[in-house]
Specification:
alpha/beta
């Protein structure tokens, strides 16, 4: 089963999509990787979904990726005396470290790391930024602030701190338990929330090792300040525009999205654009025209994947949302302007033989009108190097590792196939022909471009390029 598009679809599983039958419908509609959101649901719930996806994978004979999204720290105010409090612009309020049933002079904020790090002039955003207050003074266990944007706050509403870097691990005790459970299940990707600094990635890598790909969710302004190091330490990146759009001005989000996509392409790391892409389809059978344009923009930017959240997890039209996203991607990639835009955004080629070979393979495939590039890849690196050039042909990624085949379900243009190790040139040519034919990517007497690393089976050694004509 081959997708008739290059960019991939990630869909979040929830009450609207957790049954085996619904998961099948979603896959057939276009899902390449399923996201398990560990902010919700029990371990038993997620284990059942994981088992259903693996059973589906076996039934359809195609690799399917599974992404575990860890919740991360949640910063919230405590409880208020009347359950809610209306704040007026310009008034002074006070946060306290301990207490409950607070009023405007004693709003509970039970997070000592905030009191240790925050400075006068910095802002706190409450309830996804609906209320903004600015710090004017600090006490031992209190923070005085002036209301900048008025509104009502209520019990346990979330707090964002766009200008403050907290001495806080992105992995809570819950996250560590969830992570151990996900690795035991055998998820393919781990998405790390609340990334503030490169050391957060190092901490997570120490727990994960190579058992799953590590994906950095970019949702904090402090992460943008050290983004090159964070990308370098990750295996993939998610542009989590919901939280990021709360903490930076909305008008900056589109430019940041483009920067992150370009940076990830340069670093040869898959990048997902996420949050509110077809949000109106939570309750409507079609998206707004603006939402369709938003998805298309991510595709024109060259993103590897786009993601559905509530649309597929809790919406009334999960299958329709996936099908709509599939159609938007396909139509965008067929647009006559698409190729020139993606080519213009092509990342600089690193001066090394592996990158040069991958780039040459893309150019050669176009020159001889090859229908596909066959990439032998033990770790996924060869396929990723080819994908970053965004060739106008399919990338048939052949790997002996089922885990790699599943992780490649996030990579732009990659059609992954698991196959036995090759040991000789003859086997390389033979297997390339067999899989190109059996996967319906080429037919005799077409030429295909074959890329591999010699010695075979050694990760990262992209150094061999060959043209093969398929035999009748």
């Amino acid at each position: 089963m081959r997708r008739q598009r290059h960019a991939k679809i990630v869909a979040t599983v929830g009450p609207a999509s957790a049954s085996p039958d619904k998961l099948r419908e979603l896959f057939l509609a276009g899902v390449d990787t399923f996201r398990l959101n560990f902010s919700h649901g029990t371990h038993q719930d997620h284990a059942a979904v994981h088992a259903a996806i693996r059973a589906l994978e076996k039934d359809v004979g195609r690799p399917i990726g599974i992404l575990q999204d860890l919740q991360g720290p949640k910063i919230r105010i405590g409880t208020l005396r009347d359950g809610a409090l209306a704040l007026s612009e310009g008034e002074t309020i006070r946060f306290v470290l301990e207490g409950k049933d607070g009023d405007r002079t004693s709003i509970p904020l039970p997070h000592p790391e905030i009191f240790e790090a925050i400075l006068p002039g910095q802002d706190l955003l409450i309830d996804d930024g609906r209320v903004r207050v600015r710090v004017t003074g600090l006490g031992n266990d209190s923070i005085e602030a002036r209301v900048v944007t008025a509104g009502k706050i209520s019990n346990r509403k979330g707090v964002n701190l766009p200008s403050t870097v907290l001495d806080l691990s992105p992995l809570t005790a819950k996250d560590r338990a969830d992570l151990a459970f996900g690795l035991e299940l055998g998820v393919d990707w781990i998405a790390l929330s609340f990334v503030q600094r490169p050391s957060d990635m190092i901490e997570a890598r120490g727990l994960i090792g190579e058992r799953a790909g590590l994906l950095a969710k970019i949702e904090k302004p402090s992460a943008l300040d050290q983004i090159e190091d964070i990308v370098r330490l990750s295996d993939a990146v998610m542009v989590a525009r919901g939280d990021l759009g709360v903490e930076i001005p909305p008008e900056e989000v589109p430019g940041r999205q483009k920067e992150l996509v370009r940076l990830c392409r340069l670093a040869v790391k898959p990048v997902i654009i996420a949050t509110q892409m077809l949000d109106s389809m939570v309750g409507a059978p079609t998206p707004t025209r603006a939402e369709a344009s938003d998805v298309a923009t991510a595709i024109y930017d060259g993103a590897d994947a786009v993601m559905l959240s509530a649309e597929s997890a809790a919406g009334q039209y999960p299958v329709e949302a996936v099908a709509m996203m599939d159609r938007i991607i396909s139509k965008t990639e067929q647009d006559k302007a698409y190729r020139s835009i993606v080519t213009a955004l092509r990342a600089e080629i690193e001066e090394s033989p592996p990158h040069a070979v991958a780039s040459a393979a893309a150019d050669l495939a176009q020159a001889i009108h090859a229908p596909c590039i066959v990439a032998y890849t033990s770790s996924g690196t060869t396929a990723s190097r080819i994908a970053r050039t965004r060739p106008d042909v399919a990338i048939l990624a052949i790997t002996p590792d089922k885990d790699v085949a599943r992780r490649l379900c996030l990579l732009w243009g990659a059609h992954s196939v698991r196959s036995e190790d090759i040991h000789t040139y003859e086997e390389m040519v033979e297997q390339a022909e067999v899989h190109a034919l059996s996967e319906g990517l080429a037919e005799p007497p077409e030429f295909i471009v074959v890329v591999a690393g010699v010695p075979f089976g050694t990760a990262g050694t992209t150094n061999n390029l060959r043209v093969v004509q398929l035999r009748p």
